[in-house]
Write a structure and sequence with these properties.
This protein is 22% helix and 36% strand. The protein is an alpha+beta fold. It has two domains: 101 residues, no CATH class; 52 residues.
Length: 184
């Protein structure tokens, strides 16, 4: 009896007690894993083909170990052009042992947890920078050096907004250094 099953985006022909190297699985070593996307089952003369998968069929396996594959060298060259590029790659693999092939009556594997949408960090920092009030507006004389450092980190647009708030005139033609000097 053999089955063609999809594991980590690739199709494998598997038999009971066979060791298979697949792309890295997010399962710990020694744990059981089940694959329910069985595309074809063959039991002697009887062949069952799924459309696209066979309902109730399942292949169970045990994760033996995680490892890295052999090194692959990718060398590109264009003659008479002085172009040579050398890259290397080692694929992360998982070795699994096929323990059982169930033809029917298997339960569907639990669906993966829905991932929550996370905002990009760059957008969040830009939003914080726009809404944050600069500390230099409330700085005392003793913190004047620290305030000028904060001003130098700000953009010209932020400096112009601060100057407008303080009532400084002629800011449209000022450069960043002049704006910092006027605000200090």
């Amino acid at each position: 009896m053999y089955a063609i099953v999809e594991i980590a985006g690739q199709q494998f022909k598997v038999v009971k007690d066979q060791k298979v190297f697949v792309h890295r699985l997010q399962t710990e070593e020694g744990k059981q894993v089940a694959f329910d996307n069985v595309l074809l089952l063959s039991d002697g003369d009887k062949v069952t083909i799924g459309a696209p998968a066979i309902g109730g069929a399942q292949v169970s396996a045990k994760v033996l170990k995680h490892l890295k594959g052999d090194k692959v060298i990718v060398f590109k060259k264009k003659r008479r052009k002085g172009y040579r590029v050398k890259n290397g790659h080692r694929q992360f693999l998982t070795e699994i042992l096929i323990e059982n092939i169930v033809v029917s009556g298997a339960k569907k594997a639990a669906p993966a947890k829905a991932t929550t949408k996370v905002e990009p960090k760059a957008a969040a920092t830009k939003a914080e920078a726009k809404t944050a009030k600069p500390a230099s507006a409330k700085a005392t004389v003793g913190k004047k050096e620290e305030a000028t450092q904060d001003l130098s980190k700000m953009t010209v647009a932020q400096l112009k907004d601060m100057a407008k708030a303080k009532g400084i005139t002629g800011i449209s033609s000022m450069k960043k250094g002049n704006l910092i000097a006027a605000l200090s």
